[in-house]
Design a protein that fits this description.
Layout lengths: L13 E7 L1 E2 L11 E2 L2 H18 L8 E8 L7 H14 L2 E11 L6 H10 L3 E7 L3 H6 L6 H13 L4 E8 L6 H13 L4 E6 L7 H5 L10 H17 L3 E4 L2 E3 L6 H7 L4 E4 L4 E4 L2 E5 L3 H9 L5 E6 L2 H12 L6 E2 H8 L3 H4 L1 H9 L3 E4 L2 E4 L1 H5 L1 H8 L1
Parallel strand pairs: 1-4, 1-11, 2-3, 4-5, 5-6, 6-7, 7-8
Antiparallel strand pairs: 8-10, 9-10, 12-13, 13-14, 15-17, 16-17
Helix pairs in contact: 1-2, 1-10, 2-3, 6-8, 11-12, 11-16
The structure holds iron/sulfur cluster.
The site of iron/sulfur cluster has 10 residues, from loops.
Length: 387
């Protein structure tokens, strides 16, 4: 495969996503590109990332980075020195906006106070901690290698290290989970006073052990009514605690919305680095090879391998904006849509729009199509009206 050649518009800031695919083991529900940590591969990957960074830096076209997101995998498994080397290279190859948000995904079992301080020193200013649940039995069922006490300890240590922007990941609709247990998880998370919570319903990827073992809505998974009740309970508790739903699965205190995710949902631009990393620039999206050895070999040879690369037509970009915007509280920017479609949304998609409004799933406001609370709950069905 040939290296990609995404073109770069001038203007607004962009982002950088770095994928670090190593994990302590494979969780049975996981559908991401991640693999068990192998010290040799990790050692080879860092210099390859530094080399690849030099190659992709010109794609930013001088635009400042508004956010850098280190995802995985479990980036916190790597030594803090490796993360520091990576961020130092990012800072010298690209311009960081003064308030650039630098997020790192972490698992509670892979942190210590010393490591958190070193990560902060390296430039990380936001931590996304994979708590998933505070019930030991559910953590075990999820194949997680940490305890609720590990999560609490890591969270307090992150605060002590001076990390002011902390997020917790939780999953609900788990095998054997009751509504009360789901409520207890939210309350336990809120006790830590996080700035942000990502709350995902368990998904069953067909190629995962969970996907082969379970069927949605059937025991031991909770039925549909119980899942809806879990969502209602969670929404009430999170909103009452000052965490506003700004996307179907994401809640934040004002100003603590995850910038990388927000830009993704707004169809924004971000460069990509690392095996399996996805990028988007001005209507072109691509992913680098989701294979550590192939990725490293490609970079060393001067020809990074692509998993895929595609250029979206303006119409496809508009469709994506509607689909993603209907998942966010801020909704769809109608002027941007008009610029892509060459016509008003009301002309291009008059019938689905009428149905969307009649169902009470969204409302038209000056310059925006904004989902209602009901529309956010039914975001997939709302998007389905259009496509
Ligand atoms: S820690 Fe996260 S990325 Fe790694 S296997 Fe588990 S769910 Fe997947």
């Amino acid at each position: 495969m040939a290296p990609t050649d995404p073109y770069t518009p001038a203007g607004a800031p962009c982002g950088l996503y770095i994928h670090l695919p190593f994990c302590a083991g494979r969780c049975p529900y996981c559908d991401f590109f991640a693999q068990p940590h192998a010290a040799g591969q990790a050692r080879a990957l860092i210099p390859a990332l530094l080399r690849h960074l030099e190659m992709i830096a010109p794609l930013a076209g001088g635009r400042a980075l508004a956010h850098v997101y280190l995802g995985g995998g479990t980036p916190s498994l790597l030594p803090a020195q490796a993360i520091a080397a990576l961020l130092e290279a990012v800072t010298s190859s690209l311009t960081l906006a003064p308030d650039c948000e630098v997020s790192l995904e972490a698992n509670p079992g892979s942190l210590s106070l010393g490591k958190l301080k070193a990560l902060k020193q390296a430039g990380v200013n936001r931590l996304s901690l994979g708590a998933q649940s505070f019930e030991p039995g559910l953590l075990q069922a999820l194949g997680r290698r940490h305890s609720p006490a590990d999560t609490r300890r890591a969270f307090m240590q992150a605060r002590a290290a001076g990390l002011a922007n902390l997020s917790l990941d939780l999953i609900y609709a788990l095998p054997g989970q009751t509504r009360q247990a789901a409520r207890a998880d939210i309350l336990a998370a809120l006790e830590l006073a996080p700035d942000h919570i990502s709350l995902y319903e368990l998904t069953l990827g067909p190629a995962t052990p969970f996907g082969r073992a379970y069927v949605k809505g059937r025991p031991p998974l909770p039925d549909e009514d119980t899942v809806l009740a879990m969502e209602d309970t969670a929404l009430g508790l999170l909103e009452a605690a000052g965490l506003k739903r700004y996307e179907v699965s994401n809640f934040a205190r004002p100003g603590r919305e995850c910038r990388h995710n927000q830009d993704t949902w707004r169809g924004g631009d971000y460069l990509a680095l690392g095996p399996g990393a996805h990028g988007h620039l001005a209507g072109r999206r691509w992913a680098w090879a989701a294979d550590v050895e192939a990725y490293v070999a490609g970079v060393v040879a001067g020809h990074p391998l692509l998993e895929f690369s595609e250029e979206l037509t303006p119409d496809q970009q508009a469709q994506e904006l509607v689909m993603l915007g209907l998942r966010t509280a801020e909704g769809v920017d109608l002027e941007r849509l008009r610029a892509l479609l060459g016509q008003d949304l009301r002309r291009r998609w008059s019938q689905p729009l009428a149905r969307l409004l009649a169902q009470g799933w969204a409302r038209l406001e000056p310059g925006r199509l904004r989902p209602t609370a009901l529309g956010l709950r039914l975001a997939d069905a709302a998007a389905g009206l259009f496509f």
